[in-house]
Amino acid sequence: MPPSSLSASTPSPTRNRLLAALPPDVFAVLRPRLEPAELVLRDVLHAPGEPIDAIYFPETGYVSMLAYMEDGDAAEVGVAGREGMVGLPVLLGADRDDIEGMVQSAGTALRMDARAFREELDRIPAFRALLLRYALVHFGQVARTAACNGRHHTDQRLARWLLMAHDRAEGDAFPMTHEFLAMMLGVRRSGVTLAAGQLQKAGFIRYERGSIEVTDRPGLESATCECYGIVRRAQDRLLGLPEGSKGVYRH
């Protein structure tokens, strides 16, 4: 069953866009097995090599998927906000992963126990079908991130990441340090400082005291590479949204 077509004005029982794309009768069946959960900044929802005991459907805030190296360095390989879920390995038949899921922006989520999640996947084909399509879109995001990090300039990659964060943030400003951005992008802090300075000089962002504010969204979109638009369009198609729709994650 295809996802329903949603708009920012359509009332929904959940702010998670993935769950809201389910037919109402399917979501009504799932609702008793979903419980509210807080997403606390820097909390680890699933650690590398550890069993995944719950699935999270963010409603506000977002979660970074981090790949760690032997020396302790990490790089972000994906992000999940209200357009998706955290816990994809369980959907695909595994109980753990080598990737860490860490809360990067505090918020709220609907949480489902991993055992209950497996039961509902078997019981509700429409639920499994939608989440499998989401898995394909998410893995496309991961692949595009790898290609982008290997081929595009730091300022383009930073603009892409800021757009992704802005899509999932509650407002135009969100907490962020250059040190953390360097880890997200897998570059030196000096490279992030230079790239952020260029974007700020152009008037696209304002950076001060560990906070970044998007001041010119169209300008920031003009500064990024094609990777942002490719991933965004795939997510919009998944959710049954018209191409080029605005605010689909933030409202």
List the helices and strands and how they pair.
Elements: H1 17-20, H2 24-30, E1 35-39, E2 44-46, E3 54-58, E4 62-68, E5 74-80, H3 88-91, E6 100-105, E7 107-113, H4 114-123, H5 125-151, H6 154-168, E8 173-175, H7 178-185, H8 189-201, E9 205-208, E10 211-214, H9 217-223, H10 226-238
Antiparallel strand pairs: 1-7, 2-6, 3-7, 4-5, 4-6, 8-10, 9-10
Helix pairs in contact: 5-10, 6-8, 6-9, 7-8
Q: Considering DSSP H and I runs of 4 or more, what fraction of the residues is helical?
A: 40-55%
Assembly annotation: single chain
Rg, alpha carbons: 18 Å
What CATH architecture label of the largest domain applies? Sandwich
Strand content: 15-25%
Shape: globular
Low-confidence stretches: 1-10, 246-251
Q: Can you tell me the number of structural domains?
A: 2
Structural class: alpha+beta
Descriptive keywords:
251 residues, Jelly Rolls, four-stranded antiparallel sheet, disordered N terminus
